[in-house]
Amino acid sequence: xxxxxxxxxxxxxxxxxxxxxxxxxxxxxxxxxxxxxxxxxxxxxxxxxxxxxxxxxxxxxxxxxxxxxxxxxxxxxxxxxxxxxxxxxxxxxxxxxxxxxxxxxxxxxxxxxxxxxxxxxxxxxxxxxxxxxxxxxxxxxxxxxxxxxxxxxxxxxxxxxxxxxxxxxxxxxxxxxxxxxxxxxxxxxxxxxxxxxxxxxxxx
Amino acid sequence: xxxxxxxxxxxxxxxxxxxxxxxxxxxxxxxxxxxxxxxxxxxxxxxxxxxxxxxxxxxxxxxxxxxxxxxxxxxxxxxxxxxxxxxxxxxxxxxxxxxxxxxxxxxxxxxxxxxxxxxxxxxxxxxxxxxxxxxxxxxxxxxxxxxxxxxxxxxxxxxxxxxxxxxxxxxxxxxxxxxxxxxxxxxxxxxxxxxxxxxxxxxx
DNA sequence: TAACTATGAATGAAGG
DNA sequence: CCTTCATTCATAGTTA
Lengths: 204, 204
Fold this sequence. Notes:
Helix content of chain A: 25-40%
Subcellular location (chains A, B): Nucleus
Keywords (chains A, B): Developmental protein, DNA-binding, Homeobox, Nucleus, Transcription, Transcription regulation
Shape of chain A: elongated
Family (chains A, B): Belongs to the WUS homeobox family.
Domain Homeobox (chains A, B): 24-89
Region (Disordered) (chains A, B): 1-31, 89-149
Largest interface: A-B, 36 and 28 residues
Number of strands of chain A: 3
Oligomer: homodimer
């Protein structure tokens, strides 16, 4: 069982493959988000917007497109998976703790499905309260920080727009926020000096 | 009948999986349509019956049951999801074409952008909605002259297709092109040489 | 080289 | 009808 043969077409936009053959192979490679894109997505997610509406999704996509080809579907999937994964992680962790206080995440992988629960660090101080004191995102750049708005400064004009990212951030500073009811603010992302606002109104 | 007389979940038939976890665990396995079942479903869908009534749903279920456990709800959900997905795809495609200037007829293209699963705003979203584009596609294609039975002739089929049934079965594809409403006839599915008729009455 | 992990994409099932 | 959750498949990227 488990033999599905559904149409696996979709996706799109991807970087150049090793060698683009003129063959009829669409090379349906899946979208590989760039580090900058991941940063943006994570920041938005951690800002409380865990489920952006369509309008916001489109806007976010436009934002991400500045760093690489990406479609609305990719953004949509990203948020969906993010939410799902976060919840699942929490659930499994909780379940494990309930059953056995020292239930190690080690599992015996069985042939067939490789869905083994893997609980990485993070997710500790999760106060599921209406109060949101989420000050995640150590994006301590020289940019001024406005209340209720996150500033994101990127320098892609240079050769290495990655400098800012690898400057201090290990890779991804994501503290899974279960559901923060952030106040209506605005996520401001500065790209190449151009600020892009992503108003985060009613999250869901 | 105020409410749809359709029972929401009545999939009484479901196979058991490797239930060696907990004895009392129903394992709640979701229905995994077999390739043959998918073929039948797609055929019916592509034949124009995109929203079969309950009676037809039951009949289709009976048909599918020959290849594996399946409930009425599964069939119902399948059609519902299929319809939704098709519409979404179509909408997205149209939107993409409007935005994407490279609608080159040439194939072997890495697609434009990730098609999103949710409806794009298409024209600012404000105007009254539900402006269903009825034009659609020409309801012609290759159809048998038999007014009593309908043949499934799908194009595409470029994707990997499973090894059909043990008999000869018309190919199918994932192309979603629901004919608005072809002539009311009968959908005949040849299974193992045995024709099963599914009269398509009120299509939708 | 293969095996594993992380994650994007697809879809069944439900809720509204 | 539409959106959303949960489960699963497939694959890019990493590791032994």
